[in-house]
Amino acid sequence: MAALTARRDHAAGLRAPIAVIGEAVIEDFKPRHASDRVPRTGGPAFRIARELALLGHASVFIGSLGQDHDAELLTEALEDVGVRAFCTLRDGEATGRLRLTQKKHRVKRKVEHPVTQRIDFDQQQLDTIDQAALVVVAGFAFHDRKQHRTMLDAVLQPQNRLILDAKPPICTDDDLVLVRERLERHASSALLVHLSASDAELLFDAPVDEVTSYLLDLGARNVLATEGSLGGRWVNREGLDVHEPAAKLDGPVIDTVGAGDLATALAVAQLIEHREAHGPDVAVSEAWARELLRRAMLLAGHRIRGIRQLVNSRAAASS
């Protein structure tokens, strides 16, 4: 196997980069009421890494791709915004490709190519994780025992560094029990867990508010819960519980894919900036959480209507 590194690195600042580990795929997307499909780059970890770069934060992507043209498209799309990619390339395998069809408030998924999921965690990838300011995990193959153990051992001080998105990888319907059990192991020591209402139902067969409390009981320091049209919540072990409704905007919903990834990226960016201002051990305030949720709901509301509004997160925090 080989590591693929982006050729340009113009991500901002002298900060240690944020490592994003997980899934990158090509999506053949059909918007609601559209007749044609549009191929595009995607996957939860891919989107979070790109959004972080667009928010002004140096990020690196660690994942697994096939040796094909789709892998080139994905790494070039990362490179275009200054994200370095350290990817395991799987011999003889195709990069994951999905068919996504937007319905009224949900997305129908069909797998065209199985998603390549095994990351080698070679020395370059492990060094990147070790040096990262934060480690974000999204769409990760927790059902793979070896990969789960390697990642668990690689992220030192997870209570101060690990951001966990509870979205399971594609093609794991038969392994959801394992995904849940191993995700819980990581969540028990995570700085932040992002949980959507749909993933709460899929993995835990329970409403998102119940799963949020459960994750805090396990040991997660903070939970960001996104509930679609019901808005979002920030809850932590210090007793903070802040809710913000979804933004009320005009226009039809066109594409809900990636709204939660945008919220995760914004939370990560503003956590980094909170640490820079106040130190790593100072808990976030109610005002901080409310402003984060307000901005996340506004940006997500525009995004699902096909309007890209993304500003530097420092400006977002003060707007």
Automatic annotation (TrEMBL):
Alphabetical list of InterPro entries matching this protein: PfkB_Carbo_kinase (IPR050306), PfkB_dom (IPR011611), Ribokinase-like (IPR029056)
Q: Is Lyase there in the keyword field?
A: no
Q: Recall the GO molecular function terms of this protein's record.
A: kinase activity
Q: Which residues form the Carbohydrate kinase PfkB domain?
A: 33-275
Gene3D superfamilies listed in its UniProt record: 3.40.1190.20
Q: Which UniProt keywords apply?
A: Kinase, Transferase
Is Membrane there in the keyword field? Answer: no
Recorded family membership:
Belongs to the carbohydrate kinase PfkB family.
Full protein name = PfkB family carbohydrate kinase
Species this chain originates from = Pseudoclavibacter albus
